């Protein structure tokens, strides 16, 4: 792997919540344009890995690098601002701002945080809502949208920051089975366009189709990682085999 | 059975008193409510910073002002602020007068009383915010202050608007106690009028009517604001 291509690099990351060690020496590197899926049982630390990458959760030891940012050295929200510009996140519970319309949700941060020109941002926001097929819902409030629609607004909101990386945290876990597909379609398009994505997911079929690489985590460790064909068809570790045996 | 006599109401002096008193009551109620909101907002914001000494200070402030009678607070401010030396010498007459007028003392005292209640109201609003909303704002690069201003405060104030309406209507009624420290508001002039005319029942019925009208108007206005600011998914909108 050419080092200059590596966009995100975690090295021996440890994190404990009280006495419970969530991450036990996580090392992971993600190349520019790569789509990496993280799978594994609940409580294995998947979501925590994502939250450490964009600095929402400070780590105890180890290092995290995103582009030129040394995330583990950042202490204040102010220092993290350029990082958050580069790394967007989409959450399991959508986390839209309930007091603003879909369009306003997409426009807020680029204007208020990045200081971009409101007119230019509106053009961008409408284009992104069209991309996730929600143009006609621009003036609806989150409370008036279905889960799948809210999640697509959240994806448009993440994209409006013009990030290099998007972190997806179990984005279909709270959705009805019928609406899962519309969200996965939107994500698949982004991956096809070459946006760097890290996805924590329980959708094994989707992971197999979309991922360049799959990491299996268990008890705070990355047990096994490799191309989807290898992980799903010929898992090496007994724990991976056991997990896949249960979910597939 | 009642023999109500409102002939005194034709006297322009009494009319002037009633109008001036009503205006002072409105002024005192709105000014103290506005300051209370500001105290409440910043107090609740300060509590989110989780600084131990600041928390202790705010908690003490809330306990003291929420748990003592507003009348006592007014008397306390009225008599202590002038006796501890906040006096100025009037350059025209050369007489030493209190720096703060009775109105100013009532305003300070009502603002602090209402402020203590508002801190609690805003705090409960902020506490009820979904954590997810805060996390989303952080992930989008909002600073602490921006997050509060753009996202947390707008949502929290909608959640606690009914509580604020309560505080404001109470505040309006509590202004009547300022008559005790000689603030010339509605109750004060009412007393003047019945001392002059001995028409106590008539004056009280009229004043009652004025308060009911004003406070009803206020709560009607607040409900309108509540409706206008409501967004789907919270409260009873749509």
Automatic annotation (TrEMBL), chain A:
<dbReference type="InterPro" id="IPR030679">
    <property type="entry name" value="ABC_ATPase_HisP-typ"/>
</dbReference>
<comment type="similarity">
    <text>Belongs to the ABC transporter superfamily.</text>
</comment>
<keyword id="KW-0067">ATP-binding</keyword>
<keyword id="KW-0813">Transport</keyword>
<dbReference type="InterPro" id="IPR003593">
    <property type="entry name" value="AAA+_ATPase"/>
</dbReference>
<dbReference type="InterPro" id="IPR017871">
    <property type="entry name" value="ABC_transporter-like_CS"/>
</dbReference>
<protein>
    <submittedName>
        <fullName>Amino acid ABC transporter ATP-binding protein</fullName>
    </submittedName>
</protein>
<keyword id="KW-0472">Membrane</keyword>
<dbReference type="InterPro" id="IPR027417">
    <property type="entry name" value="P-loop_NTPase"/>
</dbReference>
<dbReference type="GO" id="GO:0005524">
    <property type="term" value="F:ATP binding"/>
</dbReference>
<keyword id="KW-1003">Cell membrane</keyword>
<dbReference type="InterPro" id="IPR050086">
    <property type="entry name" value="MetN_ABC_transporter-like"/>
</dbReference>
<feature type="domain" description="ABC transporter">
    <location>
        <begin position="8"/>
        <end position="244"/>
    </location>
</feature>
<keyword id="KW-0547">Nucleotide-binding</keyword>
<dbReference type="InterPro" id="IPR003439">
    <property type="entry name" value="ABC_transporter-like_ATP-bd"/>
</dbReference>
<keyword id="KW-0029">Amino-acid transport</keyword>
<dbReference type="Pfam" id="PF00005">
    <property type="entry name" value="ABC_tran"/>
</dbReference>
Automatic annotation (TrEMBL), chain B:
<feature type="transmembrane region" description="Helical">
    <location>
        <begin position="70"/>
        <end position="88"/>
    </location>
</feature>
<dbReference type="InterPro" id="IPR043429">
    <property type="entry name" value="ArtM/GltK/GlnP/TcyL/YhdX-like"/>
</dbReference>
<keyword id="KW-1003">Cell membrane</keyword>
<keyword id="KW-0813">Transport</keyword>
<keyword id="KW-1133">Transmembrane helix</keyword>
<dbReference type="Pfam" id="PF00528">
    <property type="entry name" value="BPD_transp_1"/>
</dbReference>
<dbReference type="InterPro" id="IPR010065">
    <property type="entry name" value="AA_ABC_transptr_permease_3TM"/>
</dbReference>
<dbReference type="InterPro" id="IPR035906">
    <property type="entry name" value="MetI-like_sf"/>
</dbReference>
<dbReference type="InterPro" id="IPR000515">
    <property type="entry name" value="MetI-like"/>
</dbReference>
<keyword id="KW-0029">Amino-acid transport</keyword>
<keyword id="KW-0812">Transmembrane</keyword>
<feature type="transmembrane region" description="Helical">
    <location>
        <begin position="28"/>
        <end position="49"/>
    </location>
</feature>
<keyword id="KW-0472">Membrane</keyword>
<comment type="similarity">
    <text>Belongs to the binding-protein-dependent transport system permease family. HisMQ subfamily.</text>
</comment>
<feature type="domain" description="ABC transmembrane type-1">
    <location>
        <begin position="22"/>
        <end position="219"/>
    </location>
</feature>
<protein>
    <submittedName>
        <fullName>Amino acid ABC transporter permease</fullName>
    </submittedName>
</protein>
<feature type="transmembrane region" description="Helical">
    <location>
        <begin position="100"/>
        <end position="122"/>
    </location>
</feature>
<comment type="function">
    <text>Part of the binding-protein-dependent transport system for glutamine; probably responsible for the translocation of the substrate across the membrane.</text>
</comment>
<feature type="transmembrane region" description="Helical">
    <location>
        <begin position="203"/>
        <end position="223"/>
    </location>
</feature>
